[in-house]
Write a structure and sequence with these properties.
The protein has 411 residues and is an alpha/beta fold. It has helices at residues 10-21, 63-71, 99-104, 110-125, 137-145, 147-162, 171-180, 193-205, 322-336, 391-409; strands at 2-6, 25-29, 41-42, 51-52, 58-59, 78-81, 85-89, 92-95, 185-188, 209-211, 230-232, 235-237, 239-242, 254-264, 274-277, 286-289, 303-311, 346-356, 376-378. Among the domains are: 2-79 and 190-249 and 359-409, FAD/NAD(P)-binding domain, CATH 3.50.50.60; 98-180, no CATH class. The strands form five sheets. The chain has a seven-stranded mixed β-sheet.
Length: 411
């Protein structure tokens, strides 16, 4: 079959790789100059490795990623570490990434710590996420962990990430976050670009075509019913897979992702990789010190720290320049590290449709792979259920879409 894949993120790449492996003639169209979607990287001249535009890592139970890495012969490039995750409370940093650190946390009485431990154990053990779609995250967290623990541990993070959507976020979303979390995290030598480049090379070696800087008009999901083939830029295709955002009915709310990255001579965070900000007076949700995870020697011996947000489309930060946002953030960054002197480079990245909001009964609203238009398939991050966004699930989704298309072609 001749198959068009629209979108060169990990879903499109995984689908194109799987389909070309099965000897289909695939053309992948990517609107931008680089592949990788939300996980694409950039590299300065004095760096040995590329860096993703937003913070990325894998969990050690990300099977789709691990299997693909093995298949592409990249196992020796995989790096596994156990970095520190912490929360900022009342100006102090507290490690909160293990049962022992929870027990040592001084801002909750023992009874609430035990209830929180029971909550997390329940979410780790139970495989039954579907009933949790009927509850909000707040209802689940307060009923088992207690209202005091919810106000201290969870509410600031839910509101910080989802804003006005927070009260409607379903408990199944929170279940997925706890289910997948592992103490050890994975990264790859050279950054995620190493895997992206390997996929691109494999697709081409298997006979596929990749066309960048090209945004074709894809087959519409609202028209063309009954057609057995269609044309994209005067080339006829038998099937098309769309991996780009599409309007849904009923609509699914989305948030934009925005990251400001600072490159500094001295570290901003001391020994902490991921710092959740619970003080909502701060203008960012998280500070992520990439070079407390990966060695700074790969980045010109400089320190790299992300400051991240998820924002609604009308948020004023989205219209700010890098300089304006940096001016807004710097007083708060200096509260994290009073000795911080911003003296090198900064980078600003903004991405729309980066976080679908999993409201109640989300699985019934998530788009299906098979659309109402014959021979046109849809696979984007809105389709990932019950899991949240992430490279592992983008790969898994692309492989699933490829298998479905292959099955239809064999009929």
């Amino acid at each position: 079959m001749k198959i068009a894949v629209i979108g060169g993120g990990f879903t499109g790449l995984a689908a194109a790789y799987t389909l070309t492996k099965r000897h289909h003639k695939v053309t992948l169209f990517e609107a931008g100059p680089v592949l990788g979607g939300l996980a694409y990287g950039f590299k300065e001249k004095n760096w040995d490795w590329s860096l993703e535009s937003s913070y990325h890592h894998w969990f050690t139970n990300d099977r789709a990623v691990l299997n693909l890495i093995k298949e592409l012969g990249l196992e020796k490039k995989l790096i596994i570490k156990r970095p520190v995750t912490a929360n900022l409370y009342r100006g102090k940093t507290y490690q909160l990434d293990s049962p022992l650190s929870l027990l040592r946390f001084p801002l909750l009485p023992l009874a609430d710590k035990l209830r929180t431990a029971a909550l997390l154990a329940f979410l780790k053990i139970t495989p039954f996420w579907k009933p949790l779609e009927n509850l909000t995250a707040e209802q689940l967290l307060t009923s088992i962990g207690g209202s005091r623990a919810y106000q201290v541990l969870w509410e600031p993070l839910l509101v910080g990430k989802f804003g006005n959507f927070a009260p409607n976020v379903q408990a199944a979303w929170f279940w997925a976050r706890i289910q997948k979390r592992t103490p050890r995290l994975m990264y790859m030598e050279g950054g995620f670009k190493t895997l992206i480049d390997a996929l691109e090379s494999a697709i081409k070696k298997q006979g596929g075509k990749i066309i960048k800087n090209n945004s074709p008009c894809p087959p519409s999901l609202r028209s063309g019913a009954g057609r057995r083939e269609f044309s994209i830029q005067n080339v006829k295709f038998d099937k098309a897979l769309l991996t780009i955002p599409q309007a849904q009915v009923p609509p699914i709310p989305h948030l934009w992702a925005q990251t400001l990255i600072l490159e500094t001579k001295e570290p901003i965070l001391k020994n902490v990789y991921w710092l959740n900000i619970t003080d909502r007076s701060f203008p960012f949700l998280a500070a992520v010190a990439h070079t407390n995870f990966m060695d700074k020697k790969y980045y010109g011996n400089h320190h790299l720290t992300y400051f991240g947000n998820y924002l609604p489309a009308n948020h004023p930060y989205l219209s700010m320049t890098k300089e304006q946002l940096l001016k807004k953030f710097l007083p708060f960054i200096q509260r994290l590290c009073p000795s911080t002197i911003y003296d090198l480079r900064s980078y600003l990245f903004t991405a729309p449709f980066a976080q679908p909001v999993h409201e109640l009964h989300y699985s019934s609203r998530a788009p299906k792979l098979e659309t109402s238009v014959p021979n046109v398939f849809l696979a984007n991050m809105d389709s990932i259920v019950p899991w949240d966004r992430g490279v592992n699930y983008a790969i898994e989704l692309g492989q699933k879409a490829a298998s479905l298309i292959n099955k239809y072609g064999s009929k």
